[in-house]
Amino acid sequence: MSKGLKISRRVIMTVLFLAALYVTWTTLSQVPVSEILGSDYDHPDDIHAAPSLREELGVSAMKAAPHAEAASASVAETVSALEEEINWSQYPVETVTATGYTANAESTGKAPGDPAYGITYSGIPVHRDVYSTIAADPDFFPLGTVLFIPGYGYGVVADTGAAIQGSKIDLYFDTIDEVYDEWGKRDVEIYIVKKGSGEISEEELISLNDQRVLVY
Q1: Interstrand relation of 131-136 and 153-159 (parallel, antiparallel or unpaired)
Q2: Is the dihedral of CA 159, 164, 169, 171 positive or negative?
Q3: How far are the Cα atoms of 146, 147, 196 from residue 203, in angstroms, in the given order?
Q4: Into which CATH architecture does domain 54-211 fall?
Q5: What is the pLDDT of residues 47-64, one digit of tens each?
Q6: Pick from 175, 180, 192, 178: which is nearest to 96 by CA?
Q7: Cα–Cα–Cα angle for 171, 175, 178, nearest 5°?
């Protein structure tokens, strides 16, 4: 066998080996090709592809940023600790239907650049933390009402919505991925920590989050 033929066979065998190794890796790891290459990877259930689901969840198509994911993890850890450490039976309980929303146009009708973008009915900016801004029916939960929602954290009623009537609440999230991964839509028992006076200020919300845990 000539030297050139031997080299050709070795090259072919190497290529076949690498191809087999690649197929095995992607099959076992379930990592998409686009992710391996470092390109953008759309959520398989991207909300743009499912308008009925978008309407059902009441959320917009905003993708998650690394810092948002880190902040979300921190909030989740605190909420989990609160659920275990506080005796929630001391508070009145209400069963509600809770959905999630973001500040984007598909949830609020407003886009970045709009002076009212990200501003709640109460006038304070939307905010996600241990104490987050949420929307509710003010006849059911007046502005300033503090609720504890298991799996979400404290919700401070600062916003309203035409579809949020009676025993419905809308929970603010920074991104659409958080709505998908952390909430969606569910019926949940919530705890009424403090009944609101009908108003809430940004300073009050900041103060609540500075304290992190406040039991009335």
Answers
A1: parallel
A2: negative
A3: 15, 18, 15
A4: Beta Barrel (2.40)
A5: 222 333 334 434 333 333
A6: 192
A7: 70
